[in-house]
């Protein structure tokens, strides 16, 4: 009976105190000031400062990309001081408010945990395993020969392939007065000459050469001589001195040398047989698109012939040495692109076409925009593309106007100009504006690279490639706080129940 009575007394006391707590809360919320019990202090309302804090167990060595939860031990256990975490170097380690550490860079740094006036430190080393370290690289260009003002794209392969997600690659040019390169691998010709493009990742490097050529004027002319020509007094003349061909077409060169007493036997050599080959008799065959040169030499003097191969080239090929076959027929009317005609004739500064009408912005269209200073607006499915004539830098390349907006788990993706080099900056107005971040896929590092915030549905791009619109921060993983909040609520409820059922004296 005594035991039962004691239990009933404890329960009654607990219920009474809970009722008092409810009354205090109601009184605090009541507009009647006479009911306020501000003089009553409950045990859980008192501040309990931290007397010490210890690091607890943690992993001092982390792999890049991994995470761990820090759990410092604060005494006394009922301390009301919250724990604050600070990273000395956020480029190596980041830490959330709840103590979740992310390894984002290689190196050693310290995380400090503070509770009131008490602190403790975690020294953590971040490293990579063998699958994350680049041991070899291969660097190549879509074409090793370009004209001034044109661009090509660099392609990089790393080994092992698993290291591509962790590699930090820098690209440099040996002569930026000849060619420049940006972080996305876009190589642009500045002036005639040769430059070496170098990719560096730690101690591993890879190189490739690019030759920049000046754009030749139209018409045929005399071949140039080598430096040895003036010393020997011999001058090699080649007709024509430049050739424009479609892939698969041919053109025969005719060479001669002065004085006539010099050797009239010539050798022919292509600088890039992937673009054009040349036979021992001087027949050029176009192989792939791009630009290269043919060296014509009699062993003493030499001359260069420029060869341009593109799919839209006017027919300038034949199977004989008769150069007159390449001359245009003056009686044949020249057809003008209707888009070019509209740009030239329109009195408006903005000319609007549908994407079906202008699937490709050709060099002629770009030239018309640049000379008139007008803006072309191409309306597609879910977007409008604007090309301003004032921003056109090159008229020898083309621009694909098709954008396919594809939904993914991260947001919306699309590819601009199918990864080619843009001849100008492009403004894209999208119908969707619910996203906040814009990323561009970096083919060199195989990562999404953050560009800027995305507002008003407008994108201004000067680099071709894959773009992503998203609301996610792709650099760090998002943390779900629901578990931590629910756990905290459970701990608080358990503490209250313990005090109510076990403590006999409330106000000591």
From TrEMBL:
SMART domains, sorted: BID_2
Keyword presence, Cytoplasm: no
Residue runs in coiled coils: none
Keyword Transmembrane helix: yes
Disordered as annotated region, ranges: 314-334
Domain of life of the source: Bacteria
Compositionally biased region (Low complexity): 314-325
Stated name of the protein: BIG2 domain-containing protein
Species name: Faecalibacterium langellae
């Amino acid at each position: 009976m005594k035991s039962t009575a004691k239990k009933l007394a404890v329960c009654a006391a607990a219920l009474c105190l809970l009722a008092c707590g409810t009354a205090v809360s109601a009184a605090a919320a009541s507009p009647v000031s006479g009911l306020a019990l501000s003089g009553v202090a409950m045990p859980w309302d008192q501040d309990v400062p931290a007397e010490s804090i210890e690091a607890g167990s943690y992993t001092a060595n982390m792999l890049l990309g991994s995470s761990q939860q820090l759990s410092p031990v604060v005494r006394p256990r009922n301390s009301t001081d919250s724990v604050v975490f600070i990273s000395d170097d956020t480029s190596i380690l980041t830490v959330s408010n709840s103590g979740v550490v992310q390894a984002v860079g290689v190196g050693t740094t310290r995380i400090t945990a503070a509770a009131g006036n008490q602190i403790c430190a975690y020294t953590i080393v971040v490293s990579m395993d063998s699958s994350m370290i680049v041991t070899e690289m291969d660097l190549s260009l879509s074409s090793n020969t370009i004209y001034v003002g044109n661009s090509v794209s660099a392609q990089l392969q790393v080994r092992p392939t698993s290291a591509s997600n962790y590699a930090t690659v820098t690209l440099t040019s040996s002569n930026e007065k000849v060619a420049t390169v940006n972080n996305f691998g876009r190589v642009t010709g500045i002036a005639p000459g040769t430059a070496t493009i170098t990719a560096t990742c730690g101690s591993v490097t890879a190189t490739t050469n690019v030759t920049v050529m000046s754009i030749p004027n139209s018409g045929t002319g005399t071949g140039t001589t080598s430096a040895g020509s003036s010393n020997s007094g011999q001058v090699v003349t080649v007709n024509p001195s430049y050739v424009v061909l479609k892939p698969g077409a041919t053109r025969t060169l005719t060479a001669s040398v002065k004085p006539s007493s010099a050797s009239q036997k010539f050798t022919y050599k292509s600088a890039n047989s992937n673009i054009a080959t040349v036979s021992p008799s001087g027949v050029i065959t176009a192989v792939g698109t791009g630009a290269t040169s043919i060296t014509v030499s009699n062993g003493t003097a030499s001359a260069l012939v420029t060869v341009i191969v593109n799919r839209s080239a006017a027919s300038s090929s034949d199977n004989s040495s008769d150069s007159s076959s390449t001359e245009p027929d003056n009686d044949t009317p020249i057809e003008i692109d209707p888009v070019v005609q509209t740009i030239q004739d329109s009195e408006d500064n903005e000319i609007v076409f549908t994407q079906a009408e202008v699937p490709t912005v050709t060099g002629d269209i770009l030239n018309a925009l640049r000379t008139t200073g007008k803006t072309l607006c191409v309306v597609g499915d879910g977007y409008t593309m604007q090309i301003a004539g004032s921003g056109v830098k090159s008229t020898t390349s083309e621009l694909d106007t098709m954008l396919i907006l594809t939904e993914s788990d991260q947001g919306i993706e699309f590819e601009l100009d199918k990864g080619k080099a843009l001849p100008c900056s492009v403004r894209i107005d999208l119908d969707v504006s619910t996203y906040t971040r814009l990323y561009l896929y970096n083919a060199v590092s195989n990562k999404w690279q953050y560009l800027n915030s995305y507002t008003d549905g407008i994108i201004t791009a000067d680099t071709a490639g894959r773009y992503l619109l998203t609301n996610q921060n792709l650099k760090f993983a998002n943390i779900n706080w629901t578990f931590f909040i629910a756990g905290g609520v459970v701990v608080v409820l358990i503490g209250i129940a313990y005090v109510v059922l076990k403590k006999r004296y409330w106000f000591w």
